[in-house]
Amino acid sequence: MKKGLITSILALTFTGLQAQPLPATPKLVVTLTIDQLRTDYMEAFSSLYGEKGFKRLMREGKVFYQTEFPFNGTDRASAIAAIYSGTTPSMNGIISRHWMDVNTLRPVNCVDDSSFMGNFTDENSSPSQLLTSTIADELKIATRNKGLVYAIAPSRDAAVLAAGHSGNGAFWLNENTGKWCSTTYYSEFPWWVSQYNERKSPDYRIRDMVWEPVHPITRYTFLPEWRDQAFKYKFDSERLNKFRRLIASPFINDEVNLLAEELLEKSTIAKDEVPDLLALTYYAGNYNHRSTQECAMEMQDTYVRLDRSIASLLDLIDLKVGLHNVLFCITSTGYADSEAPDLALYRIPGGEFHLNRCATLLNMYLMATYGEGQYVETYHNQQIYLNHKLIENKQLDLAEIQDKSADFLIQFSGVNEAYSAHRLLLGSWTPRIELVRNAFHRKRSGDLLIDVLPGWTIVDENATDNRVVRHANIPAPLIFLGGGVKPETIRIPVNITRIAPTLSSAMRIRAPNACTETPLNF
């Protein structure tokens, strides 16, 4: 009797398991990374939206209100590298869009590569400085190169890092010519992109592009007192930087959509049962990188137009592929353009921090301590690089000099903390140090990392724009939508590095090779 009961229970259990098949593998995964998208802005401007963009995402998607980046100093490049690799800059090597090359003592772009020429551009680019695999690479490996991977973005770093080492193509807008361009690193430049450039690229249409508010001015809120007139921008009015202004406006999102439509029509993407990846990047930052105070109405209208671009993209994918065959992943780069100094109008404590003066005084201190020499080799982006060759020739202890330098720098006005490479690599652990350590790469970061106090202005003598430090969190969403995704809203924070294993799991492929996170459940 007991044996028969157990057999019945087991039979029911296995029958139940068999009755719950795994969700179908999507024919197409669409990753939409929206540069500087903010959850709080999405909500604040919701009265201006239609029903088929943000509201549809919130209604039909699995929505994580807050994603967190487990490293300091996030920018567009480091964020996108983390999203697609599932790991932090300490592993994937993309510590920022630019870093100092210690061999040439010059800043380099994270996708610079002189080994490859450009298509429709004179930039030399490849993903070779991305040190780990990505979901794009793992898809190519798993499908023996049958899965297609294309990336379209306003900017070069976003396109190349999203396409990964094995992608079929990465396309970005040439900010000087208005043509879509790429690199010879990837396969032959597609005929349909060349054809598009000859007939439909933005340079043919920019003279007619005028940005005015979608809604009457009375519908926009949070405006400064002086703002009583609607804005009007004609991109073609400035001959030298018209395409840079286009790239830093919501109009670029429609241009991304137009090329994506061409891709879906002219290529074989999503035409078979092998999963493909379409990696798109939008822009949702301040217009022309100006301050929020200057662009309060423009920012609201950016979200209105972003809402419409998302709606158009969803309709396009539904028409060409069918949303039930697609998994959408929409997320943000999790940072915001730095604000300009407020000139003490609001009496917020602060001051000016000059990295060049800091580096000069540090060198004088090291000379007084260890003798003549140029101990500080260079500095860049709140980091100081020491002269390792000089230190070695003098038979000095590099770790000791790094730690003494950090102790010296902490005494400067405006410095919150100074981290030595030695401390980051071998020192004790704290939650704060973990964020700094995850952003640090031992071959690309400086010997000394300086954390400046919030409210202080970092003055760069080599640039025209100075920035105010903010340590405040930027609320960034993560939304999944498509076949097999059940609508749900989750307010518990989730790490951005869990996107890669989640998408890998959905495509039935391995997670990227440096990704240790577990997938999120749909």
Automatic annotation (TrEMBL):
Transmembrane spans: none
Keywords: Signal
Signal peptide from the UniProt entry: 1-19
Coiled-coil segments: none
Gene Ontology terms, MF aspect: alkaline phosphatase activity
Gene3D superfamilies: 3.30.1360.150, Alkaline Phosphatase, subunit A
Claim: Signal is one of the keywords in the record: yes
InterPro entries associated with the record: Alkaline_phosphatase_core_sf (IPR017850), Alkaline_phosphatase_prok (IPR026263), Phosphodiest/P_Trfase (IPR002591)
This protein's name: Type I phosphodiesterase / nucleotide pyrophosphatase
Classification of source organism: Bacteria, Pseudomonadati, Bacteroidota, Bacteroidia, Bacteroidales
